[in-house]
Write a structure and sequence with these properties.
Helices cover 77% and strands 0% of the residues of chain B. Chain B is mainly α and 101 residues long. In chain B, helix 1 packs antiparallel against helix 2 (29-54). The chains are: A mainly alpha (118), B mainly alpha (101), C mainly alpha (481).
C-alpha cells in the first residue's frame, strides 16, 4: 500500500528542491542594496514598534477559551448533517435541544460580559 | 490496511508514556497541560484504530466525546491558570506551595 | 431511541435541565440575593429526590442497555442528592460570610451531582468516562471558587491537574479494554471475557489502568497525594461535598465496572486490592496523627475511610460474600456521608475569613461555651472512630465481618488496629474541646447548625437501630448488580 504514497513523495521532493532552487537563484543573481527601512522586521506593513517578544494580553486567553467551547460543537453537528435524512425528525429535535443548551451557554457568557474586550 | 494494528498500539503507548512523563517532570503548568492532552489523544488513537479493526462505530463515537470533554477541560484549565497568574504572576508548579503540612 | 428511555432517567434529565435553568435565571437575580438561587436549587434537588424514589425497586434498562437503573443506583442517587442538599445548606451563609457569594455555585453543584448519578446508572464504559468528567469538571471550578485566595486557586489547579491525569488513566484503560474485546458496553465485555475471545494482556493492563484512575479519584494510597492539599485549600462546603460525593461515585464506578466486567480477573487483582486497602488504612490514619489543622485532619481521615471502603471490595471475586460486602459498603458510605457532613458543618460554624479558626486550638473551650456544637462534634468523631453503638461502629462491623467471611481476617485485623490508632487523633479533638480553656468564636447561622443537628440525630438513631439502613442497603442489591 506504500505504493499509493509514491507520487506524493515525488511531488514533495520536487517542491522542496524548487523552493531551495528559487531562493538560491535569488541570492546569487539579485542585486543587494540594503537601506534602513528594508532591514526592519516585517509586521504586515505597519511601522513596527516595541520588542518582538511582547506579552500578550490575558484577554486573548479568555477569548480562546470561549472559542474552543463553541467550536467543538461542530464535532456533533457534522455527523448529524451527514446523516440528516436518515435521522429524520427525532434527530432534528435532539439537535435542536443540543443547540438550545449551547445558546443558553452563549447567553450566559454574553450577559456576564465575557464577550466584551474592555 | 497495510500497517499492522500493533504499530498503532505501540505509537499510542509511546504517546501515553510521553504524556505521563510530561505531567510528572515538567514544571510549567501549561506544558503539563499539553502532556495531559497527549494522554487523551493516545487513547483516541487506540479508539480509532480498533474501531476500524473491529469494524464497529462505538470507538469513533467515543472519540467525539473525548474531544468534547478535552475541550471542556481545556477551558476550565486555561481559566484556572489565568486566574492563578493574575494573583501570583507565575504558573510554575514548584512554587505552588502555600498548602503544606 | 424512544421516550421510555428518557422515562428511566427522568431524575437525571430533570436535574440537568434544572441546573441549566438556574444558570440562566441566576443572571437576573441581584448580587445580594443569591439565597433565592440556593432555595431554587434545593427545591430542584428535592424534586429529583422524589423522582428517584418514584422508580422504586424495579430495574429499568434504557438506551440499548447502556443505562441501568436498579436498586444500587437508587440507593446511591439518594445519597448523592442528600449530599448536594447538605452542600447547599452549608454553603449559603459561608459564601456570604467570606465574600464569595456568586450564584454559579449552585448550578455547578447540581451538574456535579447529576454526573454522580449518571455514574451509578452507567452500564457502558463511554458513560462511565462521561459521568466521571461531568462530576469532576464542576468540582475543579468549585474547588477554586474562592477567587483571589491563592490557597483555593492552587487547590483548584492541583485538583484539576491530578483529576485530568487520573481521567487520562481511566480513558486509556478503557481504550485498552476496547482494543482487547471490541466492546465498550458491560455485557459485551463480560461475554467476550467469558468466551475468552480477547487479548488477555491488553485486557489486564486496561483493567489496571482503570483501577489506577479511580484510585486517584477516591484518594487511595499511593494515589492520595493531592487530596490533603485540595481539601485544605478548597472552600469548606465544597470539601465536604467532594469528600463524600466524589469518593462515593468513584467507589460506585469501581464496583460496577469490576463486579460486572472483570469478575474473572479477581485472582490477579485481589492481592493488589488487599495491599491497596491495607496501605490506605495505615497511611491515612498514621499521617492524620500529626495534623494540627482540622481540615487536613479530616482529609487524612477521609483517606483512611477510603481504605475501609476498599476492604469491602477485596473479596469481590467470591460470589457468596460479594453481595454482603457490597451491602456493607453501601451502609458504610451512608454512615460516612452523614458523619462527614455533620463534622464539616461544625468546622464551618467555627471557620472565619482567610482560613482562620481552623487550627485544633481554636476548638478549645467549645464544650463550655457552645455545648450543642461540641456535643454533635463529639458524636461525629466517635462515629468516625467506630466506638460501639455509633453508626460508624456498625459500618466497620459489617465491613470487617464480611472481610472475615471472605477469608481476609488479616485485613480485618489491620482495620481494627488502624481504628485504634485513629481513636487517638479523633479523641484528641474531643479532649481539646472539653478540657482546654478557651474562647472559641462561632458564627451562629441556622443552616450549618441544622445540618449538624440532623446529622447527629441520624447518627444516634441509626446507631441504635442500624437494621433499618442495612435492610435498605441489602434490598438495594436484591436484584444483583
Amino acid at each position: 500500500m506504500l505504493n499509493e504514497y509514491y507520487p506524493l513523495v515525488v511531488i514533495s521532493m520536487i517542491a522542496i528542491a524548487l523552493g531551495f532552487f528559487v531562493v538560491l537563484l535569488g541570492s546569487i543573481l539579485g542585486p543587494r542594496r540594503p537601506t534602513q527601512h528594508k532591514g526592519q522586521p516585517y509586521e504586515s506593513g505597519m511601522i513596527p514598534y516595541g520588542p518582538g517578544t511582547r506579552r500578550i494580553s490575558v484577554r486573548y486567553y479568555l477569548v480562546a477559551v470561549l472559542f474552543i467551547l463553541f467550536d467543538i460543537e461542530v464535532v456533533f453537528f457534522l455527523p448529524w448533517a451527514v446523516a440528516f435524512r436518515k435521522l429524520g425528525v427525532s434527530g432534528f429535535i435532539l439537535m435542536v435541544i443540543f443547540a438550545v443548551i449551547l445558546e443558553i451557554a452563549f447567553v450566559y457568557a454574553w450577559k456576564k460580559g465575557a464577550l466584551e474586550w474592555e | 490496511m497495510g500497517i499492522p494494528v500493533s504499530y498503532y498500539l505501540v505509537l499510542s503507548a509511546i504517546m501515553f508514556v510521553i504524556g505521563i512523563l510530561g505531567v510528572l517532570l515538567r514544571r510549567n503548568a501549561l506544558v503539563t497541560f499539553m502532556s495531559l492532552e497527549m494522554m487523551f489523544n493516545a487513547a483516541n488513537l487506540i479508539f480509532v484504530t480498533f474501531a476500524a479493526y473491529y469494524r464497529v462505530l462505538t470507538g469513533q463515537i467515543f472519540v467525539f466525546f473525548v474531544m468534547t470533554v478535552a475541550a471542556a477541560e481545556v477551558a476550565v484549565g486555561l481559566a484556572l491558570m489565568v486566574a492563578i497568574f493574575r494573583t501570583k504572576h507565575s504558573i510554575d508548579l514548584d512554587q505552588m506551595s502555600s498548602l503544606k503540612g | 431511541m424512544n421516550l421510555s428511555d428518557y422515562y428511566a432517567i427522568t431524575p437525571l434529565v430533570f436535574l440537568v435541565c434544572w441546573a441549566i435553568f438556574l444558570l440562566l435565571v441566576d443572571l437576573w437575580i441581584p448580587a445580594g440575593r443569591k439565597g433565592i438561587t440556593a432555595l431554587l436549587s434545593a427545591a430542584g434537588l428535592l424534586i429529583a429526590l422524589v423522582l428517584v424514589l418514584r422508580s422504586g425497586e424495579q430495574v429499568l434498562t434504557a438506551f440499548e442497555g447502556s443505562v441501568v437503573v436498579d436498586g444500587f443506583s437508587v440507593f446511591l442517587s439518594v445519597l448523592f442528592l442528600v449530599s448536594a442538599l447538605a452542600g447547599i445548606a452549608l454553603a449559603h451563609d459561608y459564601l456570604q460570610r467570606l465574600g464569595l457569594e456568586r450564584g454559579e455555585y449552585y448550578p455547578l453543584l447540581l451538574i456535579s451531582t447529576s454526573g454522580m448519578m449518571l455514574m451509578t446508572y452507567a452500564y457502558d464504559l463511554i458513560e462511565v468516562f462521561l459521568a466521571l468528567e461531568l462530576l469532576s469538571i464542576p468540582l475543579y471550578i468549585l474547588a477554586g471558587f474562592s477567587r483571589l485566595n491563592l490557597e483555593s486557586e492552587e487547590a483548584s489547579l492541583k485538583y484539576f491537574l491530578l483529576g485530568a491525569f487520573s481521567s487520562g488513566f481511566v480513558l486509556y484503560g478503557v481504550g485498552l479494554v476496547f482494543a482487547a474485546t471490541g466492546y465498550t458496553d458491560f455485557p459485551g465485555i463480560a461475554k467476550a471475557a467469558q468466551n475468552g475471545s480477547l487479548n488477555p494482556t491488553l485486557f489486564l493492563i486496561g483493567a489496571g489502568l482503570v483501577l489506577t484512575g479511580f484510585g486517584f479519584k477516591s484518594a487511595l494510597v499511593p494515589f492520595h497525594m493531592w487530596s490533603p492539599d485540595v481539601y485544605q485549600g478548597a472552600p469548606s462546603p465544597v470539601t465536604a461535598f467532594m469528600s463524600v460525593g466524589a469518593k462515593a461515585a468513584g467507589f460506585a464506578a469501581l464496583l460496577r465496572v469490576f463486579v460486572v466486567v472483570f469478575p474473572g480477573m479477581s485472582v490477579n487483582l485481589t492481592p493488589l486490592l488487599w495491599a491497596l486497602a491495607a496501605l490506605t488504612m495505615f497511611v491515612g490514619n498514621i499521617v492524620a496523627l500529626v495534623q494540627s489543622n482540622i481540615k487536613r485532619l479530616l482529609a487524612y481521615s477521609s483517606i483512611a475511610h477510603s481504605g475501609y471502603l476498599l476492604m469491602a471490595f477485596v473479596p469481590y471475586g467470591n460470589a457468596s460474600v460479594r453481595s454482603d460486602a457490597i451491602a456493607g459498603m453501601l451502609f458504610y458510605l451512608a454512615a460516612y456521608c452523614l458523619t462527614t457532613f455533620g463534622a464539616w458543618a461544625v468546622v464551618i460554624a467555627l471557620e472565619k475569613a482567610e482560613g482562620k479558626g481552623l487550627e485544633l486550638e481554636d476548638y478549645a473551650g467549645l464544650g463550655h461555651r457552645y455545648p450543642f456544637l461540641a456535643a454533635t462534634m463529639t458524636i461525629f468523631l466517635l462515629s468516625f472512630t467506630g466506638v460501639p453503638l455509633t453508626l460508624g461502629f456498625w459500618g466497620k462491623f459489617y465491613l470487617f465481618s464480611t472481610a472475615v467471611e471472605g477469608g481476609f481476617w488479616q485485613l480485618a485485623l489491620i482495620g481494627l488496629l488502624t481504628s485504634l490508632i485513629s481513636a487517638y487523633y479523633y479523641l484528641r479533638v474531643v479532649v481539646i474541646m472539653y478540657m482546654r480553656p478557651g474562647t472559641p468564636q462561632v458564627q451562629r447561622n441556622f443552616w450549618p447548625l441544622l445540618t449538624s443537628g440532623v446529622g447527629a440525630l441520624a447518627v444516634v438513631i441509626l446507631g441504635i437501630a442500624p437494621g433499618v439502613l442495612l435492610n435498605l442497603a441489602v434490598s438495594a442489591l436484591l436484584k444483583g448488580l
